[in-house]
Design a protein that fits this description.
heterodimer; A: alpha+beta; 2 domains; six-stranded mixed beta sheet; 19 strands; 35% strand; B: alpha+beta; PmbA/TldD fold; 23 strands
Amino acid sequence: MSTGSTWAADAELEVAGQVVELVARLAGAGAQAEVTVSRTELALTRFANSAIHQNVAGSAVDVRLRVHVAGRTATGGGNAVLADGLRALVERVLAAARFTPPDPAWSGLTPPVTVLASTDWDPATADAGPDERAALVRAFVDAADGLATAGYCRTAYRAAAFANSAGHSARGRAAEAAMDGIARDGGADGTARHWVDRLADLDGAALGRRAAAKARAAADPVELAPGRYPVVLEPAAVGDLLENLSWYGFNGKRYAERQSFAAPGVAQFDRAVTLVDDPLAASGLPFDLEGTPTRALTLVDAGTTNAVAHDRRSAAEVGTASTGHAGPDSSTFGPVPRNLRLATAGTAGSASTAGSASTAGSASMAGGDLAGAIADPETAALVSRMQRGLLVSDLWYTRVLDPLSLVITGLTRNGLWLVEDGRVTRAVRDLRFTESYPRALAPGAVLEVGRRAQRLPDRTVGAWSEAPSLRLASWNFTGGASG
Amino acid sequence: MSEFDAAEAAVQAALDAGARYADARVMHRRYESMTARSGEVEALTQDENVGLGVRALVGSSWGFQAVPELSDRAARDAGRRAARTATASGLVPGPPVDLVPATPVTASWSAPCEVDPLGVSLATKGDLLVAATRTMADHGADLAEGLYQVWDTAKWFVSSEGHRIDQRIRECGGGISATSVGDGETQRRSWPSYRGQYGTTGWELVDSLDLTAHAARIAEESRELLSAPLCPAGETDLILGGEQLALQIHESVGHAIELDRILGWEAAFAGTSWLDLAQLGSLRYGSELMNVTIDPTIPGALGSFGYDDEGSPAVKRDAVRAGRWVGVLAGRDSAAVAGLDYGGSVRADGWARLPMVRMTNVGLEPGPHSLEEIIAATDQGVLMDINRSWSIDDKRLNFQFGCEIGWEIRNGRRGRMLRNPTYTGIGPLFWRSMDMLSAEIVSWGTPNCGKGQPGQVGHTGHPAAPARFRNVRVGVHA
């Protein structure tokens, strides 16, 4: 099926309308219903040992219905879109609602409200075939110049529509592409990744070269004693911080349950930190699962916590309005920001120590293969001003020890280097850390923010982070390769 | 058209488009979950979906296509597109692909199930969670949560070699958790584990957990933990409860013996393995007490099935025997690459996902001791139970786990409660230090094993019992 220019969200809107009508017919005009119908075309070409070994594509349809009848609420979903299947879904969800206990916390339906049209989406990306993805993989592999490579190239297209029995409806479409890969030099890996609106903007060769350069720079690592070190975190590592802050901190349900560190109005972070959830900064759907329009939400403004993300239920619990973050799991795990943008130096709350990237950057470049450790001049500038510390490419398998203090353990991955006198001097074996993320970004802890951000893919379609490199005063490494 | 007809149409279309091998899975899955919070039902969800996934091998390259409908037209189109995708894979080719031989099977299999979990009324299930969470709230929990989940999956498998297998697998489970919020940190206690215990079984499993009977105790323990002393830092003897040891097995044995990881197929994401195939049969993985099996035939365990998603019958195999590494989790293509003669551990998370190497039931055989004997034999140490956090490196060597609760062990007796217990180590060194193992085996179910791109969630089982490990580093804190 062609998914792009020949295919709109009209079909989804029609199905959503049918479901709302069915609920009214079967449960009466007093029943409240909200429906989201979505179709996703996802294709992912995966490679390892420098060959494509898994290559998948598929269509998925989801009809998601929530009803509130006689004070009781139930949710159900399915992928049937013909009349019999839709009726079965409605009957199943209505039956479930009859058996559930009363729901006094029901927060009502979203009233009719203007939803802006989808941001630009690229039909060529939506319609991309396996040959185009394979060509990008070929370019990545070739650019690694003999090193073993692994990773993926992904394209996705989404069309969705929303309707509820309060008369509100919306529809939208989005397309995206991403590439994420590593090159391997013996036991050392280097990584490069990129999320884009348009497949044509992916440069497989550039990513392959970057990954290979980092892998070569990571070869022959030495073991370093654990302890507290100043660090420069590259954008991929910063992305992990943003994701965990988002999931456990800027999550309105966890905030309402007093399990989040977030305290709006309090200067919890260094003034260099400004963090915005910005779903419309790239191709994305313009409404959430409750039909609330998505919009930019400033979570941290120059170090001061400004807001947390809400769906209608968590918002009602604390007496505020939804921020447009209802998702499939928001009623249980909580509403989570998924398009996080950390402001670069010079755009908000920049640290006073920031200097010229162009001049300072050249000073930190080491010779030989070690030069490949630093992927860009902006990160080089941060490294050049670190007396002794570690350059961290990526973080891995980060897990929460305590959600309130947001103490997290995890490991470095895909490259770790010792920096001495502003120069990368040695590759270092991966280290384990145990660190409170809010404390690592607390007032005075962020020494410098990079001047340029990279947009990086999340594991799920529709989610990304955009971050510059960060120079932090301290990071708590608690274990080495030997334990 | 029937599910088998759709699968056969997809396979035939892939062959007609140039595939030298093809297989297809039709799956129909119903899912139900309910969560309760502090005496009220928080969410009830019921999902149902059906679709078809077809895999084609053209030359030495694979392609896969999934469609959410079962018409003849859709099935044939999916088969053709899978072959087209496989052809595109040939632009970046790998070494020749073979499949270890398999005998074509025509079979039907169902998992044992006494009480259909979707047949139990929502009112009964809701009353259980409401009562348990209300009791926890009444006994001091700031946040009292309860959860059950049910999966009812029917699947039909057809291959171009002549397989024709249908299976019905019902899985369910549940649990409760109490959280107390203190000054700057939270403490949590769960029963029987966080998010519950699961099996390939009926509602009788949830009944057997007796959630309400444990609600008051765990709520009170979560509050007591707020003022308990911090788990001290240092090296000591560590006794792990069976639930925590199950996750230790999952992370530091189960994933490490996945053949796709060993071969580098997961290098960019899930990671590789510290294991080298050249050492299969000779490597010392752990102590003599360590006997780990790969066994999808255990009745009721979460990783059980009749046939895997390549049509290989469920067979019990050794992974570690008397501490020596002797087996892997494999599929037909990865086994052929490694020169092995068995697959049997390939599954897909639904019709829309590619089958890949997954754990089945990977766990320990019983040891000669009991937990009380282990405690009595320990002069100084820490007992930890119920997982709270888990992290391990991409080679499955360096791990750090946190548990919900610890107890000081002094002179063979369980002493005061300890908060924030954590331990860390290196997989093989840790397993070589195991010197006591209980016979009290429970097959713990893990319904949230993530792997693959696009992401897949696997259901795995892990027979485990309490055990003692010598000289382990504990008390890692921020």
